[in-house]
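We treat protein structure as text, and this decision shapes the records that our systems exchange. Because each token names a local backbone shape, the row as a whole describes the fold. For reference, a complete record is included directly beneath this paragraph.
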Amino acid sequence: MTTTLALIALLDGISYASLLFLVAVGLTLIFGVLGVLNVAHGSLYAIGAYMAATLGGWLTAQGYNPWLTFPALMAAAILTGVVVGGLMERFLLRQIYEKDPTLQLLITFAVFMVLENVQRMVWGVQPYFMSEPLRALGNIELLGIRYTAYQIVFLPVMAILTMVGLRYFLRHTLAGAKIVAVTEDREAATSIGIDARKVYFVTFVIGACLAAMGGALATPTTSVLPGMGANMIVLSFAVAATAGLGNIEGALLAALLIGVARSFAVYIMPETEVLMPYLIMVLILLWRPMGLFGAVQARKI
């Protein structure tokens, strides 16, 4: 494998890992706090992508400055997370927190199937694409190869900022301290006056916004099609399981590991591309059943 090809594979893997991390960290945050493995998380990713394509397409059709598509991506993610995620938590998940995990899994899978059909009803089956952010940021040349700055600079920066911002929120804010307290011991947190239901709602909305942001940021790099959420939820679960379910910091490294490995597989052995993320997950779970960073630790609140 030549140096040039290795560089291409590495940059492609980092770009893909950035999107994968945004979705996976939302999934692992929800599981870590609520204890629910939300299969419908993939639908939030897809709806975020559709919303971003719709808003970006409208701005372009109206002749607005292409740079306005960047806030449109964030607006689409927040709108999807707050509205769809908020309604999902308030009227569905809140009713099953104490239920059997198998029932929770089946119900969230049912919601996923419903939302898949809602997407077809609202947006149809034709592909959507919105490339203005790619053109706005232009290209960067490395070793004679041209890359889009959006993919190799903007997406990794967004992933890192998200990681830093999320950790700061959880460790240095009152709302974050409440989330950590409920995660560690719900009964004790409730006994000192923390509203666990409110904490669950806020956590789920944050996780939903992260999933939708992954979809929104993916819109300029790929066609938005029905079924895109199914592939992403499986991959994001592989990342979360590899890192250790509920482990936020590990999700970034696991996403990078899986994203880069998948990218190299595309260039070296294309037939193993689909297999690679799950092979990595299986091997790591056989070695460390709790995931790479899933060791149980006592924490003082």
